[in-house]
């Protein structure tokens, strides 16, 4: 008997996925219109997308789209003609961002080719006083014990996942929740045991999520692990094009590096470490097309499978990567994390704040306590976090 629970759709009014499709996506279209002075042709394309994604059905990509065939393989042949709310939520969200980039002319020769519609918001965050504060806090790390420093940098990367610009559009007061309650699952001991101080792990892969205030602590963690000799080589996976509002692209990596190297104090030396690691090849940045695929990682192509099989550890950051890792399904929360990730080609860790319904690997007591205190809100509020590891 097949006991795999159903994939999450966006078809139930009152649920978080439904609100993303019917409220968040229109709000993102407005945000994009306000961010850059798109001309009448682009405004009309955005009008058409707004109509399509709220009142229309899924349309295939135009015949001349460079990635039309890729998207046919990824699902447009199956889902074209269906309402956006009736297909897997993971798929419809991802397709929305592809269509948005099409509407603003990101892929077509002309003024807007290659212009990230989310860049103004990303830069504002990167240059904010909050980022200044986070960078100056690095000066205090030298006074900590090695274990405390490890923990501070790991938790910096974990909680950096709250800094998600798309998520803030939906947070009740426009900001993500503050405070850091205990983790709902914490396998950090297993994570550190995979990355002992010696011998150095030959390869760490980190699959990044958001730019700005999440990417900076991700880079700091990588610099720390390289600097400590826990890791010989690291590959940072980012998105090949703008995605889910604030997801990191190669351009965002360069912006983050610039931010670190122009900061005073310890931040600058972390930036210098990263610069040196990039130039001598100990750190590589990769932007694979599958990073923007609307599919679970279980369907990863052979080259990624091969790389992640070689890695001592692959760390996946954030909510969307978690959904893609465990499958965006209605798992009972106590389903074993190791059971749903047993197909992953090597040891894998998830560092995630909880921003959507899907969850695995909780113990029954934790689930009961969270639900008693908050109803189901703990699943989506972004105020809880986890570190889960499968060796
Ligand atoms: O992956 P991230 O940045 O942590 O979160 C992405 C997110 O904001 O977008 C989705 C809803 O659009 C949810 O999975 C989640 O809330």
What share of the residues lie within helices? 40-55%
Average predicted local confidence, pLDDT: 94
What's the CATH H-level homologous superfamily of the largest domain? Uncharacterised protein PF01937, DUF89, domain 3
CATH class of the largest domain: Alpha Beta
SSE series: HHHHHHHHEHEHEHHEHEHHEHE
CATH architecture of the largest domain: 3-Layer(aba) Sandwich
Tell me what you see in this structure.
It catalyses: beta-D-fructose 6-phosphate = dihydroxyacetone + D-glyceraldehyde 3-phosphate; beta-D-fructose 1-phosphate + H2O = D-fructose + phosphate. This is Damage-control phosphatase ARMT1-like metal-binding domain-containing protein. It holds the Pfam family ARMT1-like_dom. Belongs to the damage-control phosphatase family. Sugar phosphate phosphatase III subfamily. With 391 residues, the chain is of the alpha/beta class. Helix content is 46%, strand content 8%. The chain is built from 16 helices and 7 strands. β2 (204-207), α10 (215-227) and β3 (234-237) form a beta-alpha-beta unit. α1 (16-35) runs parallel beside α4 (89-103), α7 packs antiparallel against α10 (215-227) and α10 (215-227) crosses α12. It starts with 15 loop residues before the first helix and ends with a strand. 1-O-phosphono-beta-D-fructofuranose binds next to α8 and α14.
Secondary-structure map:
Layout: H1 16-35, H2 40-55, H3 68-79, H4 89-103, H5 119-126, H6 129-137, H7 146-160, H8 165-170, E1 185-186, H9 188-194, E2 204-207, H10 215-227, E3 234-237, H11 250-261, H12 266-280, E4 283-286, H13 302-310, E5 313-317, H14 318-326, H15 337-340, E6 348-353, H16 364-374, E7 385-390
Parallel strand pairs: 1-7, 2-3, 2-5, 3-4, 5-6
Antiparallel strand pairs: 6-7
Helix pairs in contact: 1-2, 1-4, 2-4, 7-10, 10-12, 11-12
The structure holds 1-O-phosphono-beta-D-fructofuranose (F1X).
